[in-house]
Amino acid sequence: MATEQHAELIKTLHDCAAACNHCFDACLQEDDVKMMAQCIRLDRECADICTYLEHAITRNSPFVAELAKACGAICEACAEECSKHEHDHCKKCAEACAKCAEACRNVA
Amino acid sequence: MATEQHAELIKTLHDCAAACNHCFDACLQEDDVKMMAQCIRLDRECADICTYLEHAITRNSPFVAELAKACGAICEACAEECSKHEHDHCKKCAEACAKCAEACRNVA
Amino acid sequence: MATEQHAELIKTLHDCAAACNHCFDACLQEDDVKMMAQCIRLDRECADICTYLEHAITRNSPFVAELAKACGAICEACAEECSKHEHDHCKKCAEACAKCAEACRNVA
Amino acid sequence: MATEQHAELIKTLHDCAAACNHCFDACLQEDDVKMMAQCIRLDRECADICTYLEHAITRNSPFVAELAKACGAICEACAEECSKHEHDHCKKCAEACAKCAEACRNVA
């Protein structure tokens, strides 16, 4: 079953989506929101696609590889943007995204 | 069929989601992003739930009324926030959200 | 933070979405698919809204209560349908949905 | 703006998602649901990703090409499955999916 085969990927996607959503929320509360605009945008993109892919895996979607390819590219872009910022939520998000990008590449 | 019965609601939800997503994108490109933080947050909430509900109606979901109740409350909050701002995208979004809030109340 | 405050709800929603998606997949592979038609429909509804709500909580959505109200009603309907069937995946799904319905009512 | 640049793709995705969701609903009401099991599965996959991509375009996502690549592959698979069946909803769905697959390939 897909859920068992991809148990680690599911956890990685889940942690990445949570980190991105937390970073989105925290960026909107920063003093300098303007500096975080691209981060806010990519956090939403990344949280959405990770959530989507996790959900697709658990329903045994036949398209995990195709979706993981897109997800990996989005995670990579979000990791790069988040790594430019010093906020703790950005650093944690960059780390979660980089890990998730690699996990996605492995199944793509 | 739900799609025919709810043809007008589907269009209203669709226009509202598009207006919210456009407002989200435009707010992130404003000079004063900080002032738009709550607008950005609510635009995402509202675009997401309108998209969700539209999608649910077309699959003949038995839960249109329950979802429309939540959607209407979110549209209302987004309309209120957007109406505080003078940007053209906010004004258009406020209008689309107010119209959608009413349409949702009618089916909830 | 919403994620910490709602840690248990997040887990309950996650388990419910996974159980519903697994039940959806398994129902489509049963010999008597016709008997499972309503279960397949409600599994999709329930997995989708649980995934949506979990995602909304982690982005600190101001609308957790409104969404939880709709989610609870959907979980309840899915629990009722799944409890009519003897398949192991249906029984597990009914249990996860009943638990999630109650968790949703507590925050709604 | 992405919404204007991709106006035709947005309409094509929207029509495809609606056709897939209608086919999903109609398949679940057929006499021989078992024969439609793969169609039901792919209708969900295809409706979900088309809805996702349409939503992503309207928020000016930087990842339209990556997502369109996955979406095109899913549309193609759904078109192929639906074209095996004689039901009117399957034929219309196959047509909408084939058109959408081509539109996705053009932006991927």
From TrEMBL, chains A, B, C, D:
List all membrane-crossing ranges.
none
Q: Which Gene3D superfamilies match?
A: 1.20.1270.360
Top-level lineage group: Bacteria
- Please name the InterPro entries in this protein's record: Csp_YhjQ, YHJQ-like
Pfam families linked:
Csp (PF03860)
Protein's UniProt name = Four-helix bundle copper-binding protein
* Organism listed in the record: Planococcus halocryophilus
